[in-house]
Design brief:
15 strands; 442 residues; five-stranded parallel beta sheet; globular; disordered N terminus; single chain; disordered C terminus; seven-stranded mixed beta sheet; alpha/beta
Length: 442
Amino acid sequence: MIATHHGGAIRRAVGRGLALVLAAAMACSLSACGWGRTVAEKQALAAQQGGGSGAASCVDTSGDTIKVGFVNSLSGTMAISEQTVNKSLHMAVDEINQAGGVLGKKIEPIDQDGKSEPAVFAEKARSLIEKDCVAAVFGGWTSSSRKAMLPVFEADNALLFYPLQYEGMESSSNIFYTGAAPNQQIVPALDYLKEQGKRKLFLVGSDYVFPQTANRVVKAYAEGNGMQVVGEEYTPMGSTDFTTIINKLKFSGADAVVNTLNGDSNVAFFKEYRSSGLTASQVPVISMSIAEEEVKAIGADNVKGQLTAWNYYQTLDNPQNKRFVKAFKARYGQDRPTSDPMESAYVSVHLWKNMVEKAGSFDVDKVKAAADGVTYDAPEGRVKVDGKNHHISKTSYIGRIGADSLIHTVWKSKGPIVPDPYLTTYRWAAPLQAGSGSETGK
């Protein structure tokens, strides 16, 4: 039964959440929590801090509405990417409300701005859970923002729906990962480059969790598949000077680039790439975080012919996507593109609705117990929740950026790929799994 907080309980929960976030921030290095911190380790840390997952919920189900929270970067360097995710979340809620809501209740969304800062994401998530008393939270983009929020959700036994493709080596009973696991994006991208005869890779990324961990996967794949990493460069989030990195790329002998830059750094990178004389036909760049929205900001002339790896493109030809694109453009403008992260966020709201209705309850534990096997006919194709690791089966697509600023499929998987966040089914990934753990938090 969902209980109600009293003032003292709220203060204790806030204190516990703050202690966990501060502890995580102090302990969080790439080796400590950026790379495969297991659920068991996190639970042990929570126990040491006097925390746990037994916090009472203050969700109010007595009325004719139910609150949910959206936490996205509406300002800062990540706003270029996250604002459109926020729009798609609102569209999903409005669609569900127009169809009667969830368990007969209309959804009331509450927005919070993560301001492109992981610590702010944790603070806003805690506020949504403990002050606004939401039934679920949707949002986050960078892995740093997700990892900052994770101990808050585990301490309060709340639900986060995280919409982005990410580096894997993580699962939590309090997070549903509706973006791609590494075997649904990174591995297909490398398989495609290998099929195209590319053997020498140059890695460029933003200096935080996702790029560094994703590139560990790339290096393990390369070593096990007869490829070579000839350069690896990182730059702070928001960086705009890529002169040195592009010069290193030009003289590296690379025949392809794996790009894990995030946010508006991509604009500066591709402008410098183009001005240096590099071309997509000579040294193609395959990007893990550039979707249609970013193409528009970068300028099609700067990225035409380059490759992307995602699980959705606006150009997908199926009835669900045609309805989705038409609805989004009618709502936000005919010049607004749709993209993978916003589609994944949109899907996450519908999946939550389906889980709640299967459970017959908004109670977190009941929703988690009902999650396994829940499906949704998404614009990307049918997706299905894996109740053990809280990821979803997804179809993978490699796309090429066109002069029309849209991304067109050049390769797709034979069907939805079962999520494997720890890459346990790949022999070449064994070194990555050593010491990373594979608990699911169940």
